[in-house]
Amino acid sequence: MIEKFRNFRNWVIYQIYPRSFLDTNGDGIGDLNGVTAKLDYLKDLGVDAIWLCPCYKSPNVDNGYDIADYRQIMDEFGTIEDAKRLIAEIKKRDMKLIMDLVPNHTSDQHRWFIESRKSKDNPYSDFYYWFDEPINDWRATFGGSAWQYDEMRGQYYLHSYAVQQPDLNWDTPKVVKEMQDVVDFWIDLGVDGFRCDVIDQISKDFEGDNNCFGPNLHKYIHALFGREKAAHLFTVGECWAGDIEEICRHTKAERGELSTLFQFDHLNETGRYEGNNRNCKWNEKPGELRTARDILTKWQLLNQEHDILHTLFTDNHDNNYFLSRAANDTDLRYESATCIATMIYLMNGVPLIYQGQEIGCCGSHYDSLDDFDDIESINLYHELIGAGNSHAEAMKTLNFGGRDNARRPMPWTAGENGGFTTGKPWITMASRYKEINLETDLASEKSVFRFYKELFALRKFEEVLRQGTFTPLHKAEDNFAAYLRELDGRRICVVCNFDETNKIEIPEAHGEILLSNYGRTQGDERAFRPYEIAVYRMQ
Ligand code: GLC
Ligand code: CA
To answer: What's the angle, vertex CA 350, arms to CA 346 and CA 351, rounded to 5?
Structure first.
């Protein structure tokens, strides 16, 4: 692995959903100054880099993933001056900033689309996909046909997501050039990397049955990042690549494309597929932790064999908190949260943590659609009702799988609105925010935050945990995860119990205890308690 990629394994990346992080002017919407205000908090947690979900000018049909201007900040989030100050403050703390780049589509309010729809022969006419008739039966991710008739132009355009998110046509060289310029604009402002939204969709295979992995995909990614100016960036693709060869084509260093990808299998497989979405996040399925363990193990080994940089994550803004999906978020919430964190973040790769995870945030339960905001959930609700489901059944699905779960404001205090805003939050607070918030967590003997801090500090201190090899020690039938990290003869063993009680017989699991979520000490041979973890330094 090249030096640059190896160094990324020394980072901990924290994902921020700015709309819900901290509101500093009382309008109920989180803002960039709110991020700046919390940099010391993040530094204290052990964060090295911040990934900011889109904060560009946007009419917010899909909360910023519909961009109207890639060079301006969303009005509600602040100004470009606020962005510059944020970058300066990040640099002052020796941290990094990763921006969210959305190259597949723009908002229909973007100047390019406003021009493009005017006629068939304007300078922007081929910036999007226009046809006289839909040329296939593709569906949009947020429901309905992916083709929308536009009165003004008298043609259909492609939208893989909402109607207001037209797909850019990358086969037009000017589109590639414009996107290179956007990347350069942010590099010049000092950003250190990009998270690339649905990057696998920027080249279309119109003959195929889904709209990704088109024939020019690698050419276009290379055009963005295979340039001298972009060589230092950390780039992570949101990409649904399922096989290792495809992953290698994206991330082998010599290709000059991406540093790494998100691998979603462990999230997709921890829900039941019922034919209503691109992933299986909507429906509960038992045995999730073992399934996740097995999938993660498989990818750890494959990536290691192919010398590929792995991303380590369980949460993001597109899923309910993993804690609520896969473990016990009630009487064993602390134990579950710390168990999941240990299992994933001591593996081989780049840790990414999503806001709220560090205090054990979990899913909400609401009975009214008014407590939901997300276009995906609202469209799905109507689909489910249309298909004959009851209101209660539809709400159950939304509560379990909806993206709003992870998008509710960060609860900083036990006070009103969790200290997120002095105004009215743009979306209902999490249903358990009075119980689960930073202030209460810190006052508790069992603090998820303090555990995370210790976990990241351990990872930072022990080179073995960042750069060592990964060897699984669990067998398929075990109801725990156990693995070994090894470097130059130094060995660390990680054990995470999923069971209520478990006598774990692993010869390696002895020695100095580096981390425990139950206060286990050396020589303690007791059975592992529910969700108990221990990290051992091998003698
Ligand atoms: C990605 C984003 C998601 C967004 C979609 C369309 O999946 O993570 O939030 O809705 O792309 O941009
Ligand atoms: Ca605000």
So the answer is: 60
